[in-house]
Amino acid sequence: MPATREPEADLSVLPKADGSARYSYAGYTVTGSVNGPIEAQRRDEHAYEAHVDVIVRPAAGVGGTRERHLETTLQSSLTQLILVKNFPRSLIQIVLQVESAPENDYVNTKLVQASLNFAIIPALLQTAVLALLSAAVPMRATATSAIVAVVSQDGASELVADPSPREVEAAQSVHVLAFTSQDELLLAESEGDFTVKEWDDVYDTAKRICCQSGATKGESIEMVLDEKGDNGPDMRQFLRSTLETKVVADLYWK
Amino acid sequence: MADRRRINGPPGATIPPIYEDASDKSVVTRQPPRSRPANAIRQTYLKTGVTPSASGSAYLEVEMAGKPGVSGLKLSCTVHGPRSLPRSSLFSPHIILSTHVKFAPFATKQRRGYLRDPTERDLGSHLEAALRGAIIADRWPKSGVDIIVSIIEGDQDRETSRQQGDEAWDMMNTLSGCITVASAALADAGIDCVDTVAGGVAALVRDDADNGKPKIVIDPVPSEHDKIEAACCVAYLPTRDEITNLWFKGDMPDDDMATYMELVQQGIQASKHANRVLVQCIGETVG
Amino acid sequence: MAQPTLTFPRPVFAKLSPHPFLLRSLCPQSESDPAGRTNGRAPREARSINIHTSSLSHAHGSAVIRTGDTTVICGVRAEVLPVASIPQFRPRAAFEEETETSKRAELKNYDLLVPNIELATGCAPQFLPGVPPTALAQTLSTRVYSLLHGSGMVDVEDLRIWKRQKKEGEMEVDEDGEEEREEQELVGYWVLYVDLLFVSFDGNPFDAAWTAVVAALKDTKLPVARWDTEREAVVCSRESRPLKVRGLPVACSAAVFLEKEYGEPGEGRHWILLDPDRLEETLCREVITMVVDCSSGETRIRAIEKQGGTVVGRELLRGFAGVAEQRWKEVSKAMQ
């Protein structure tokens, strides 16, 4: 089952881009490239800060309204992370190509067009952050993201981290949350039918996935074990170890 | 190819509902014949300033024939400008008008597409011609103004299943409304004009009730008459006594110049009626 | 001696330096002028909403929404989609149980709800026609589409068109004893084209658009349709039945205004401005939208969307549910 697999990432996979990353988790594989700061087009130019341009390309076909929506969401989040004021009048371009998704995008031999695909947001955001790190773009903070679904089973609702497409379809509600490395809530997207209480529980679960850091890992594992559930991996630790591996590899000659 | 910037419907074609009594002529509720005098236009409601962020705007509603209180034509117009032309454009000693007329998808009996079709482009160029004669264009060199008319509801009666003639008669009524509403929006934007231009329609109709004798009526509603022989839409400047745009369509004997002149004259009459509404509306805003 | 001062009327000030203009309005210098937004509202005050339905004659359902200077028209138009024109149509087998999930999938897979938002009507100076839909228009359309499906307001059962005929000739009782029932066969669906047209745009387009969609759907009456065997087509009678709409989700949006225009996030004070107008929207990065439905008596959240900043955390979001509830009461009152 793909959901239990550990996330995997490679940095600087594209030789011609300033920075790039390939990330795969929960059935999604996304390659991202970052170029910047480069000269902005006149209409995108901003006198005080860099313009962040995000382009999302789906696994099949050309982008539609759904991709525009994803781009808007990612753009507003990434602008918060990047120190955009360091690069006035310039452009930082992020291209995210979805390589594979757990579910086929075609239904009835026709592309599923508009429905918001929540499950892909964490993969896109994670790839973008990794690619930005690989491009050495100055950032205020990094971000980690998680998806949690509330699935009702036999009357009781249960939280499922990294749900499969089938679980997403049957879920009562689906939530995507992203946190910065300062434990602030950066992005929250929810859909379905839920109460404030349920959202609170989701927040706790998502925060545990996103924000447990290596230092407190022992404690967190206990918590996970206490609840006897698979509460997903430690995203922040993953981000850290991926970069450590990359740095070690780059400094091999020393 | 599917439009990837919009949400598309099913790939297979969808059909507008077919009513079971549509082909059954006897069931068709016949529109009551024209009740107002031949020289009167329908009740018109005009209001400026519906879009505060635009330089000028106006909204026009024309009462639906035979059903008082129910409106037929509904138009909204916004004017943006005068503003400087983009750098890439050539020098122009006078203001450049760009008119844009678009039907809302739900405006007519048939669902409209999102892209402008030839009828809409045609209405746009007629509107431009009508307004160009009214604006004092050389007061704003190197500038442009955008005039956008959205047709929220076209002048077509839903229950009328008779397809007499073609859409052109409805288009004439729509154009005359577009001219009047655009003129009000231009005045609201404070763009100098020589006069207020208003649209009027007159038609040569043939009714069975009159033993098929043709007569001229103003502001015709196609469903009220058995046959429309010819019609003309006039954009007219009352104080100058000038016509800025004339659209004539129909079938008339070529030696009958008198009827032709009479039709245009009646069109001017209709335009004068519309102008009264227009002047009153602008007067209210200013006063 | 008095220093010569440069004074501008308010609109000029607003245009020249919008951020200090709004900031100054929110934290006044003296006791005499009350703190408030430039539009005269309190930070947590939304514009009152005015809803008018059934004003269009060609649409099957319509609504005109006015809140402040934002005016949006929504027309719902139904068209018939015959089963024959659905590629790879797969009728549901008798043994397959119909669930909420399968119904929603049916609605989605056959594209029975088609919402689109038209902004390019000159409704504000930045939206001029003649260009393809902007990223904002596309984002709004996607959000409306997503919420339409996610909230389950429309039941696919209501959109199905059946062919009903009595079984003839076979009067002897079958083993399963079902011959007395009418035989039903699915022949088509109603497709609802939900088109939104902005006449005037003054901020907060999603709330206005969504309210218009809900009001127009509640106003929608579909003709009674049946299969005509002779014509081999779906025909409708002049009678109509109202579309069943479940629940009343109401969207409530706010924007976060920061004291420092170009400062680091987290610095200085912030204000949460409910139902932002066009000026406020251009000055705020962080936006939050919550869609709630209290029609069952209990507050259910249907969607949350928060992006563009880190000011709104858990506590603020929780508190925002109360604000959204309040908005729900206002809008549901306006709907009646």
From TrEMBL, chain A:
The lineage of its organism: Eukaryota, Fungi, Dikarya, Ascomycota, Pezizomycotina. GO terms for biological process: nuclear mRNA surveillance; poly(A)-dependent snoRNA 3'-end processing; rRNA catabolic process; rRNA processing; U4 snRNA 3'-end processing. The keyword Nucleus applies. It comes from Cercophora newfieldiana. Belongs to the RNase PH family. Residues 5-138 form the Exoribonuclease phosphorolytic domain. It comes from the Eukaryota. GO terms for cellular component: cytoplasmic exosome (RNase complex); nuclear exosome (RNase complex); nucleolus. Keywords: Exosome, Nucleus, rRNA processing. GO terms for molecular function: RNA binding. SUPFAM superfamilies: Ribonuclease PH domain 2-like, Ribosomal protein S5 domain 2-like. Its main location: nucleus. Transmembrane segments: none annotated. Coiled coil: none annotated. It is found in: Nucleus. This is Exoribonuclease phosphorolytic domain-containing protein.
UniProtKB/TrEMBL annotation, chain B:
Gene3D superfamilies: GHMP Kinase, N-terminal domain. GO terms for cellular component: cytoplasmic exosome (RNase complex); nuclear exosome (RNase complex); nucleolus. Residues 41-191 form the Exoribonuclease phosphorolytic domain. It is found in: Cytoplasm; Nucleus. GO terms for biological process: nuclear mRNA surveillance; poly(A)-dependent snoRNA 3'-end processing; rRNA catabolic process; rRNA processing; U4 snRNA 3'-end processing. Signal peptide: none annotated. Keywords: Cytoplasm, Exosome, Nucleus, RNA-binding, rRNA processing. Belongs to the RNase PH family. This is 3' exoribonuclease family, domain 1-domain-containing protein. The lineage of its organism: Eukaryota, Fungi, Dikarya, Ascomycota, Pezizomycotina.
Automatic annotation (TrEMBL), chain C:
One of its GO terms (cellular component) is nuclear exosome (RNase complex). It comes from the Eukaryota. The keyword RNA-binding applies. It holds the Pfam family RNase_PH. InterPro entries: ExoRNase_PH_dom1, ExoRNase_PH_dom2_sf, Exosome_comp_Rrp42_subfam, PNPase/RNase_PH_dom_sf, Ribosomal_Su5_D2-typ_SF. Its main location: cytoplasm. It is found in: Cytoplasm; Nucleus, Nucleolus. One of its GO terms (biological process) is U4 snRNA 3'-end processing. Keywords: Cytoplasm, Exosome, Nucleus, Ribonucleoprotein, Ribosomal protein, RNA-binding, rRNA processing. Residues 45-223 form the Exoribonuclease phosphorolytic domain. GO terms for molecular function: mRNA 3'-UTR AU-rich region binding. Belongs to the RNase PH family. This is Ribosomal RNA-processing protein 43. The lineage of its organism: Eukaryota, Fungi, Dikarya, Ascomycota, Pezizomycotina.
